[in-house]
Design a protein that fits this description.
This protein is of the alpha/beta class. It contains nine helices and 14 strands.
Length: 270
């Protein structure tokens, strides 16, 4: 299946982040940023040029588009993928990179038309928050797993039962490949449409976007055990007030918010 790549020229980092947040709400599921532009990706069959144009014009942004054929996908990401270092905590690399030294944990990720390599500020910040959580012998629900990177880190931190879910077939397939590549034994992958779970978990992670988090807030609440912890991300700084209002209504204890660029990740305890 082909992707559409759009390229949005802007050197304004805040505008880049706003564009990413808005595009993620209309189906774009992969992004690259540099000093001069944003590249965004969406499956060709989901691409709506009129909707994309209208959305970006609201921010006075323009774009060009290209078709990325499925067989060229690995070549594309390999040409752009660089290792990611989350402090001295996690080193993230592709299989073609040399093993990393000096990190508590190393994760090898091969994106296959899905995203979540640690480059984006939200994934980076969630990992920083995960460093503060005791995962030993804990159960974990990863809602919106992408490449499976956060579920993999949870197992490396000692979790014994992890349910990672997504609504995208490519993400499910890619997560399974990455789980096997990192020799994980305690992660189950499922395709779902919402955050419904049968049993509650010790830790719930939802790194998606504001709209999906809002739509699934009650389900996320039900998915976490009393006394458990919740990490929310995929959120912009201006989203924090609305998320705090929802969480305060549920009497969640807000532990902290991390900010990286225009993005935030929030840690709670029930």
């Amino acid at each position: 299946m082909n992707h559409i790549q759009i390229i949005i020229p802007t050197t304004n980092v805040d505008l880049q982040d706003v564009a990413i947040a808005m595009l993620s709400e209309i189906g774009y599921d992969g992004f690259e940023q540099d000093d001069n532009e944003v590249k965004a990706y969406i499956f060709e069959e989901q691409f709506d040029e009129a909707a994309t144009t209208t959305l970006l014009q609201e921010q006075q942004l323009t774009f060009t588009k290209n078709i990325v054929e499925e067989q060229n996908w690995n070549e594309l990401w390999e040409s752009n993928f660089q290792p990611v270092f989350v402090d001295d905590f996690v080193g993230i690399r592709a299989a073609f990179h040399q093993p990393l030294q000096g990190f508590e944990h190393e994760i090898v990720i091969t994106p296959k038309m899905s995203f979540g390599t640690g480059h984006h500020a939200t994934t980076f910040s969630v990992m920083q928050l995960m460093r503060e959580i005791n995962f030993t012998n804990k159960t974990v629900f990863d809602f919106g797993s992408g490449t499976g990177i956060l579920a993999i880190l949870a197992e490396k931190l000692g979790a014994v039962n992890i349910l990672a879910v997504d609504n995208d077939d490519w993400c499910i397939e890619n997560s399974q490949e990455n789980i096997e590549r990192n020799n994980c034994k305690h992660i189950t992958i499922e395709k779902v449409n919402d955050a419904t779970t049968i049993n509650p978990f010790d830790v719930v992670i939802a790194n998606i976007n504001k709209n999906i988090i809002q739509d699934n807030f009650e389900l996320i609440h039900q998915a976490c055990k009393q006394g458990g912890q919740i990490v929310l991300s995929g959120l912009l700084i201006e989203d924090e007030e609305d998320i705090l209002a929802l969480s305060n209504a549920k009497k969640w204890q807000h532990i902290k918010t991390l900010t990286k660029g225009a993005w935030i990740a929030m840690l709670y305890k029930l």
